[in-house]
Design brief:
heterodimer; A: 112 residues; mainly beta; five-stranded mixed sheet; B: 113 residues; six-stranded mixed sheet; four-stranded antiparallel sheet; globular
């Protein structure tokens, strides 16, 4: 079964400190990896996807196939980064069901 | 519309009543998902529609839950004989047929009292 794990439910950091959100997955193929973010009172939205290798709002995520991880990182956290973050690998539209599988989420709290 | 639209945005209902939640996906998106987000919990998959294929209902928690998608567009999630544990935010999302990015609605907050 395809699983995704976000081991930290809550990460509390001070403004300006680095933050890393862990995501590990088990797979039976080659997933495409996404991070979604939900700010307070806003809808869940895409933050970044590994295939584009981009940096959004200072966040980057590196796919490590050997460790089956897709950790999200930002060197200097800002207060506006406080939100709920979900890791979501997908095994593509040809995979069984193509349910986008979300991790349990990590709440990030950036303190001033 | 420009995004996924859900209604009602908030619903308070009495235990035992039926509720219907509506989702209007982004125009042209063939895939539609329903998820549930409970307080302090992650995202729980409920059901997935893809074009004219049979829906994947494997996430529906009980037979009180059902969903349909008419004409390949609007979807309705129905919860019969609501229970307090059904209280949650019900999220709808849609995806374009050839892509992997999904777009979420703002959710329907359901409170069963």
């Amino acid at each position: 079964a395809q699983r995704v794990t976000q081991p930290e439910k809550l990460l509390s950091v001070f403004k300006g400190a680095p933050v890393e959100l862990k995501c590990n997955y088990s797979y039976s193929g080659s997933p495409e990896l996404f991070w979604y973010v939900q700010y307070s009172r806003q809808r869940l939205q895409l933050l970044l996807r590994h295939i584009s290798r981009e940096s959004i709002k200072g966040f980057t995520a590196d796919l490590n196939k050997g460790e089956t991880s897709f950790h999200l990182k930002k060197p200097f956290a800002q207060e506006e980064d406080s939100a709920m973050y979900y890791c979501a690998p997908t095994w593509g539209i040809k995979a069984a069901g193509n349910k986008l599988t979300f991790g349990g989420g990590t709440r990030v709290l950036v303190k001033p | 519309g420009a995004g996924v639209s859900q209604s009602p945005s908030n619903k308070v209902t009495e235990k035992g009543k039926d509720v219907e939640l509506r989702c209007d996906p982004i125009s042209g998106h063939t895939a539609l998902y329903w998820y549930r987000q409970s307080l302090g919990q992650g995202l729980e998959f409920l059901i997935y529609f893809q074009g004219n294929s049979a829906p994947d209902k494997s996430g529906l928690p009980s037979d009180r839950f059902s969903a349909e998608r008419t004409g390949g567009s609007v979807s309705t999630l129905t919860i019969q004989r609501t229970q307090q544990e059904d209280s949650a935010v019900y999220l709808c999302a849609s995806r374009q047929g050839g892509g992997n990015t999904i777009y979420f609605g703002e959710g329907s907050w359901l409170t069963v009292v």
